[in-house]
Write a structure and sequence with these properties.
The chain has helices spanning 81-93, 173-177, 256-271, 293-314, 331-340, 346-355, 362-368, 373-382, 402-408, 418-425, 433-445, 450-463, 466-474, 483-492, 496-506, 511-524; strands at 27-35, 38-45, 57-66, 69-72, 76-79, 104-106, 115-122, 131-139, 144-153, 170-171, 191-193, 230-238, 276-286, 322-327, 388-397. By secondary structure, the protein is α+β, with helices and mostly antiparallel strands. Strand 13, helix 4 and strand 14 (322-327) form a beta-alpha-beta unit.
Length: 525
């Protein structure tokens, strides 16, 4: 079973997408203490309000978190019978890396009002001021979704003078005896850095041997600069239909509703929830070349002006925000369309446009070309795409804490900085699909950022996708910071000679990592 491990340290009731949580507060009490070389976590959980359908399950996972570190503990699971059988079968057939069996799985027949949860784990100094949170997730037939994270203890405030190696979770015999066979004792709890995993299991150096645990220490991860001011600009192109002689925007007319949904998607996060402040809005109305220039000028100007009034009334009042313009005949747009979607005699049309001015008979010559056939095709297939409204919104997104970033990464990722996205990624286990997904979201929204592409390449290498990794790296092939990842890719593909070349080139960029990678290859010879 592949479990989503998405841990957030703070806000109660963080919800992603449209998910809601009606289960109330499940933790009645919590107690954390040290004894000998162990840290003990005791919780009293009330899961009586949690009802799982036959094909769904709810996971309640305690998590220790400190700066740069986190440690997941076994989850208490409330599951339907069919879901439990499917999860057990999936784990048996496709074991997930770092899988931690549940502390206890509850079904309808063995439900209790409260559960005494007690685990102990080897103490490590980073736990001294760690926080304890409870992560709540829902699993259905397709995926695991986070429902929220409840902070239990903001600061454990422990004082232990000793440091011990990572140990194994111990579950008391009393708990095991009372579990009716449902308590699973994991071999170990995975402790990791937020910027990388500690899983060092060896795998063969092949591209199909993925997820690649050994790649975690080999690949490059770059830290982005803090984006103190997140200035953004986004645009939407709308094809609005109008009744004859009307310039007002009518949402329910023809296909306008679906077109205006594009603008809704752009404006909604900018005007709701105090996520960003809008600095300016530009509206440009375009008309196609057919008809007289004067008529097109009036048409484009009035439609742009009326669209501003629509936006003021619907989204954002304040006329000083808006800049309204119009283009009576969008010949430049026609040129771009003809280049993207060539037509018969298209080269001749482009030549005519470049050599003949708008007021020098350009449209008349087009109408006469090949007996009017060319113009009729333009009129039918090209000109309608030129009649549009282009809206560009400039805004500044505010800074987001980790709880907010976790919610926005899947709903409004464009509001986040790279640093905020990577803080979310740090709560996934490297090599998992969820970890990879965040880095690919970052690369998608920052397509020209070399750092984002290199980090995405590293994430997909660990997730087992060298093809995608090469696509990311090819975009930044001239950036020396990508050389180490090129070496890892060659190493996985079995080309030791090429890998060594890349690692030696990377010695001047990442000397410590490159040396370790060269040593790893030598040790495997």
């Amino acid at each position: 079973m592949e479990r989503v491990k998405y841990i957030i340290g703070g806000l109660v009731g963080v919800l992603l997408a449209a998910e809601t949580w009606a289960g109330g507060t499940p933790v009645l009490s919590s107690h954390v203490f040290t004894q000998g070389d162990s840290l003990h976590i005791e919780l009293l959980l009330n899961l009586d309000d949690t009802k799982a359908g036959n094909a769904e399950a709810y996971h309640f996972t305690p998590v220790l978190r400190s700066a740069g570190r986190l440690q997941e503990l076994p989850a208490v699971v409330v599951s339907g019978r069919r879901r439990a059988r499917a999860d057990h079968r999936q784990q048996a057939l496709q074991p997930a890396p770092g899988y931690i069996p549940p502390y206890r799985t509850l079904y309808a027949r063995n439900r209790k009002d409260s559960i005494n949860y007690h685990v102990s784990v080897a103490y490590s100094p980073w736990m001294e001021h760690a926080s304890l949170v409870l992560m709540r997730e829902q699993r259905d037939c397709c995926r695991m979704k986070i429902l929220g994270v409840e902070p239990l203890m903001a600061d454990l405030d422990l004082a232990s003078p000793f440091r011990v190696p990572q140990g194994q979770i111990m579950i008391s015999q009393g708990q095991a005896a009372g579990s009716q066979g449902q308590v699973a004792i994991p071999q170990a709890v995975v402790e990791r850095q937020e910027t990388g995993a500690t899983d060092r299991r060896e795998t063969k150096g092949r591209a199909d041997c993925m997820p690649c645990a050994e790649c975690t220490a080999m690949v490059t991860y770059l830290t982005p600069e803090v984006e103190t001011q997140k200035h953004r600009s986004e645009s939407a192109t709308l094809y609005i239909d109008y009744p004859t002689g009307v310039y007002d925007v009518r949402r329910e007319f023809h296909n306008n509703h679906s077109e205006l949904e594009k603008l809704d998607s752009l404006m909604r996060p900018l005007t709701k929830g105090n996520l960003a402040s809008i600095s300016d809005i530009s509206i440009c109305g375009y008309a196609s070349p057919d008809g007289t220039y004067k008529d097109n000028e009036i048409l484009a100007s009035n439609r742009a002006r009326c669209f501003k009034e629509y936006m003021c009334a619907t989204y954002m009042p304040g006329h000083n925000l808006y800049k309204v313009s119009s283009i009576p005949e969008d010949w430049d747009g026609l040129v771009e369309l003809l280049k993207q979607h060539p037509m018969k005699h298209g080269d001749e049309v482009l030549t005519l446009i470049s050599r003949t001015g708008i007021f020098e008979g350009r449209e008349k010559q087009l109408m006469d070309m090949y007996g009017g056939n060319v113009y009729r095709e333009l009129l039918q297939d090209y000109f309608p795409q030129l009649r549009r409204i282009r809206v560009t919104v400039g805004y500044e997104a505010r800074a987001f804490n980790i709880e907010e970033a976790a919610s926005l990464i899947y709903t409004h990722p464009r509001l986040l900085s790279l640093q905020e996205m990577y803080r979310v990624a740090a709560f996934y286990r490297p090599g998992t699909e969820q970890y990879r997904e965040v880095y690919e979201i970052a690369a998608y929204h920052f397509p020209d950022d070399a750092l984002a592409n290199i980090n995405a390449a590293s994430a997909v290498i660990m997730a087992g996708d060298p093809i995608s990794a090469r696509q990311y790296l090819d975009k930044v092939a001239d950036d020396p910071r990508a050389w180490n990842d090129f070496g890892v890719l060659a190493y996985l593909e079995g080309d030791r000679k090429k890998a060594e070349e890349w690692f030696r080139k990377a010695l001047g960029i990442e000397p410590e990592k490159a040396r370790k990678n060269l040593k790893k290859m030598k040790n495997k010879e």
